[in-house]
Amino acid sequence: MKRFECVPNFSEGRDAARIERIVAPARGRAGVTVLDVQRNADHHRSVVSLAGEAEPLLEAVFAMARVAVGEIDLTHHHGEHPRMGAVDVIPFVPLGESTTADAVALAERLGARIAKELAVPVYLYGDAARRPERRDLAAVRQGEFEGLLAAVATDPERAPDFGAARLHPTAGAVAVGVRPVLIAYNIYLSTPEVAVAKRIAHAVRGRDGGLAEVKALGFEIKERQRAQVSMNLTDYRRTPIPRVVELVRREAERLGVRVESSEVVGLIPEDALFDAAEYYLQLNDFDRSRILERQLTPPTAVPTGVPNSSGLSSISLDELLSRVAARTPTPGGGSVSAIVGALGVALAQMVLAYSAPAGSVAPALAELAQELAAARSRFTALAEEDAASFEAVRATRRAQREAPEDEAAARRWEGALRKATEVPTETARLALRLEQQLERHRGQTKSSVGSDLVSALALLRAAREGALANVRINLEELAQAGLPHADLQAEADRISGSDPPGA
Length: 503
What we know:
Blueprint: E1 3-6, E2 9-10, H1 16-23, E3 32-40, E4 45-53, H2 54-71, E5 87-95, H3 100-118, E6 122-126, H4 137-140, H5 144-154, E7 174-178, E8 183-189, H6 194-204, E9 214-221, E10 226-233, H7 241-254, E11 259-265, H8 270-281, H9 292-296, H10 317-325, H11 333-355, H12 363-402, H13 407-440, H14 450-480, H15 486-496
Parallel strand pairs: 5-7, 6-7
Antiparallel strand pairs: 1-4, 1-5, 2-4, 2-5, 3-4, 8-10, 8-11, 9-10
Helix pairs in contact: 1-2, 2-3, 6-7, 11-12, 11-13, 11-14, 12-13, 13-14, 13-15, 14-15
């Protein structure tokens, strides 16, 4: 499954209702997740981060562009940030197995459609550029909306890649392109003097001899009465954030001011933040695999030849809900049951945290706390394994139907079906054991978190029942195929008849 990030920038940063109308077509759309929406009144600009599969993502971004073209009038738009369009820029970023070529094809399709259906001319930039000089977005946007009105019609070098050589009268033009992951990073100075920010930006940006892969501008942010050095780090591996901060800091001190604060606009890779942590903590030989969360939720292996359709441990809640709601077989009931189990465990961990003395874990609850920590990690893995095992059943069943005489293919299908039964069986077994443990320790938990404990138990019970429903369906298929399943049937019956005390 090829996936992409898309980060459209809209020339509206003050009217929250208008921004929501622009974003609305992407919300709740199967196959697309709205990751982040940020707006800035001084820049008069909003940045929306989306992720999804190619087709639904293209449809979502086009629908957002249609709303923006109808809502935003650049003839009445003034902000600090340069702009040439109501939808100013639409970059695609390839994720996972997606390639730059895949993203370029997507950008070209969107650009052609915007020009044809919305009558907004489109310039291709970045890795999608058809002319070398258009790789740089700043060169494409030179003159902004007002300057381009005349230049497009008279200068052949400014003709768009899609659409007529004239701007949309109110929506201008849009740059559609492809780029790697970019970090939008702003530093606020302890002065309102924009001239100071511009001098620092000149010293920092790569094109003026500063830092590689850094673009920078100086702005006055009236709302905060501060000057801002606004930067795009187009390759944080070549120039990590700490190097940027330190150069800005030195230049600021040279000019008699200081760095007051900073902000990230949109999303940022966690490794970029770890770069900063390692630099300032002087962790010169730090192994990032030692990070606690990376040990608790390690990558789950997927059988060879089976597509990894889950990846559930590394996506946002909104994307998870969209993936579950989509008309796709995975993630399905088995994965959701495991996720619900993980939520129940997390809530139980909170109950124990409040029930123990401050800064410690009560001896009687210490063993349970360890068991809950391990179970939460296991539930997360089971959610992934359930999706992978179902995909394996589909793949091996297809192979068996294509070669009905192939005994090896039949054995692979039988093994996959049994595995797809064993995974939800383990989910149900684990949920039952935790229900029983929590009921035994109920008297040692604080009454103030009693409702949370009830919710945790209800979630674990739902995980058990949902997983068992999945098991029973697979047991029926095993029985119809005449395959051994008595052990799995006996375990399912045991779990079904073993309600914990108090349930």
